[in-house]
Amino acid sequence: MLPVGAIPWTGLVTIFLIIVIVIIFASGVVIVQPYEQGLQIRLGQYIGRMNPGFRWVIPLITRVVKLDLRTEVMDVPRQEVITKDNSPTNVDAIVYVRVIDPEKAYFEVMNYRAATVALAQTSLRGIIGDMELDEVLYNRDIINARLRDILDRETDAWGVKVERVEIKEVDPVGPVKQAMTEQTAAERERRAAILRADGEKRAAILKAEGNRQSIILEA
Length: 219
Hints:
- By secondary structure, the protein is of the alpha+beta class.
- Helices cover about 50% and strands about 30% of the residues.
- It contains 6 helices and 8 strands.
- The protein has helices at about 10-25, 100-105, 110-130, 135-140, 140-155, 175-219; strands at about 30, 35-40, 45-50, 55, 60-70, 70-80, 90-100, 160-170.
- The strands form 3 sheets. It has a 3-stranded antiparallel beta sheet with strand order 3-2-5.
- α3 packs across α5 (about 140-155).
- The longest helix is centred in the C-terminal third of the chain and has 45 residues, at about 175-219.
């Protein structure tokens, strides 16, 4: 007779096997969130999409890749760009993108986020390189529209939709900024001088008109 509480080794094996089976079965459970789309890959072969909800796949041989379908905000790092009139300028931007084709976003490009940011950087350099500094400073909407069109056209092959592009900051490099500050100060001084001269002219005219009226009245 076995001691109280003792379990035969066959019983231990059975319990162990049950636990292993439960773990393997549980590993096949997949939960896809409402804003996600799953891609099911089995033994190196693409099976199909997996819609949101509670799902179960064959464990060990099936892998599920989840892609977020919400709009993502990507920061285009600050970079120095040379304008058409040879003015070094620091520029950065924000790109809003959304995955519209999960298969393309996963199978056609290794990392669509990094690829989109790199493309935005090179495209931004090209756009600003064709514009003068004053155009860059006062025509951000044009830059945004051109950059969005370029990115949207190129990222279409990756299953990514570029919804919006915004230039965050245009900051001319030190000497250029100093020259602009001096130019602005000179322009303000010129306008102030014009206003002073115009005021003196009006005062002289009013004074002369007053003297003439006085002479007429005395006569």
